[in-house]
Each structure stands twice: as structure tokens, then as C-alpha cells.
Write a structure and sequence with these properties.
Layout lengths: L4 H4 L7 H17 L4 H22 L12 H35 L6 H39 L8 H10 L1 H19 L8 H28 L6
Helix pairs in contact: 2-3, 2-8, 3-4, 3-5, 3-8, 4-5, 5-6, 5-7, 5-8, 6-8, 7-8
Length: 230
Amino acid sequence: MDFGKAFTFVFDDKDWLKKIGIAGVIALISIVLSVVIVGIAGFFLLGGWLIELTRRVIQHDPQPLPDWNDFGGYFMKGLQVFVISLVYSIPVILISGCGNLIPVIMQNNNDSSLAAVVSIVTTCTACFSLLYSLFLGVVLPAALGQFAATGQMSSAFRFGQVIGLVRAAPGAYVMVLLGGFIASIISGLGVIACGIGIAFTMAYAMAIDGHLYGQAYDVATAASGYKPAQ
């Protein structure tokens, strides 16, 4: 797995400035209009663009950075990415919600023993949320890799196969987790440019993530001998 390539491949494309620029503009509009449907649609477009990038890496396309010539296709893929991500996130959403709700319910109760129980439960839910978030950081990229490779959302929910990919190449998916952390830092650097730059650094960070997803999927399928039907 070529970790560094995920950070440099963008600049190998002669049209990288246009492609990242359009992604950045969409990201900026999505951030500004995030409270209305237009903003949500923009995030779906970016999610679909990321999956197309992942698919191209899996297929060893010499120019994996997608052009913006299929807005409808990107939107539908992005919508499916949202559903996949939401389903995989349900456990942490439920546990975190319960952990936040219990203190609110008990805030007017001065019983010290109940307060201790609430404190223990809150700590446990926080620990679970952290551990599951780390788990999600390696499993969700494998699920999205499955989706990108097959084009079928249902393939992302073949949990045995998804876990099998991670087990076949745990080091690759740990690198995806690390790369995602670095990409998030890069994305955050955009605030330096009066906040506007974050849209373009976010687009670049998404490109990094997509490339890492594709690379990790290739490594995992090679290690496991598993290759889903296209």
C-alpha cells in the first residue's frame, strides 16, 4: 500500500485544479447552506464523487481523480453512502444518545447513589462511543470499498465479507484510519484563509480518503483471495 501516493496523486492529474476547485465550491455551498436541502444535496454529490474515486483506484485507473460530468450519478451514490454510513453508525448514535439523556433525566435528583450510577453509566457510554468510533474508522472504509467495487449498496451490508476484508489486511485499514486523521487536520487548515479555504482543503481531504479506501480494498482482496462480482 502506497500511503504517500494518496496525498500526491491529485497533482498528477493535469486538470486537478479544476476538479478539486469544483469540489471545493460544492463543499462551500454545502457548508453555507447546510440547514437547507441544497446544502444536503451538495454533501451527497461529494460523497458520490468520493466513491467514484475509490472505484477508479480499485480498477487501477491511471487518472483516478473524477471529473464533474455526472452530477446525477454522484448524487445517487452519495445518497447511498449516507445510508450506509448511517446504518453503521446506529450503535454509537443510540448509545451516545442514551448517555446524554440519562444525566438530563436525573439532573433534579439529589440521591448520591443514583448520581454515582449515572456517572458510571456516562463514563461507560463515552468509552463505548470512543471504541466504536475507532472500529467504525476501519470497518466503514471496507464497506464503502465493497460498494465502490460492486456498485451495489447491499454489498456494503454483507457484514461477514466486510469484516473479512479488515481481518485480511488490518494494517492497511489502520493506515486508512491514520490517513483519515491526517486528512482531517489538512481539512481544518482551511480556516486560515478566513474560513473559506476549508471547503477546498476538505475536497482535497476527501480525495485522500477515497484513494486510501481503494488501496486498502485492493490489498485486502489480494490477501483474502476474495473478489466480488462487478
